[in-house]
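Title: Prediction job returns without error message
Component: structure pipeline
Severity: low
Priority: P3
Assignee: unassigned

Description:
Job completed but the reporter wants confirmation the result is attached to the right record. Sequence as submitted:
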Amino acid sequence: MKKYTRNSRVLLITRILSENPGKIVSLGYFSEIFGAAKSTISEDIMIVRETLEGAGEGWVETLAGASGGVRYITGVPEDKVLEFRDEIIGYLKNPERVVPGNFLYITDIMQNPSIISRAGAVIAGAFRDVKADYVITVETKGIPLAYETARYLGINLIVVRRNTRITEGTNVSINYLSGTQGLLSTMSLSKRAIKPGSSLIFIDDFMRGGGTLKGIRDLLKEFDSDLTAAGVMVDTGKQMIKSDMPFLSFAHFLGISEDGTVNIEPSDSLYL
């Protein structure tokens, strides 16, 4: 069996943990692939933990017991969070993003892998202490962001449909009021999608009136499940319902001036 130096083991342990955030990796697994005693692996992991936490790049958590091990919890240093938020606002302030109806074009941002990966890491880091079994979103532009958030949290993604799909078996459907104008819409989810009693985090690209968030909450009641947090890229600050849960948004969109100026301001990184 190949012999690994401590530096090599530390490097590979860091890579394995960071590529599998939220997943528990046993000491026995590391011991087997490196051909080293568990006590040696524990010392290596201590170095990894001190390095990552010291740099503000996340946390390494140890879980005791027969099914225990270690897992990496995503984190982003505060200065990088603020830098990323300002970068997003810089993109959004471009007057060329204004489309008919005084809406902002953000599709390119939501489909940019680099931006969405970083946004998902920020949201996952902010919600690291929030109990959640799934991330949930609707089938819109928010899916990539929801996927990245779920990946960094190490939990599954649930996508709510606008219409029922026969391929998903029995569905639960509800009507809800979406958008600031209160348009009646429908959302549907397979009864197999969620285990009863689950906790979920809602992720979306743009929140205008909060109608979709309220609809998700009502839908989850049919599954005896609850929302524990919500995160969006941009919001209007005019939610129809008062948020009584951790809520993350990168920017508040306040509208378009007559001269075409995009009025947008930074959001708090996390607020209740």
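Comment from assignee: result matches the submitted record. The longest helix spans residues 38-54.
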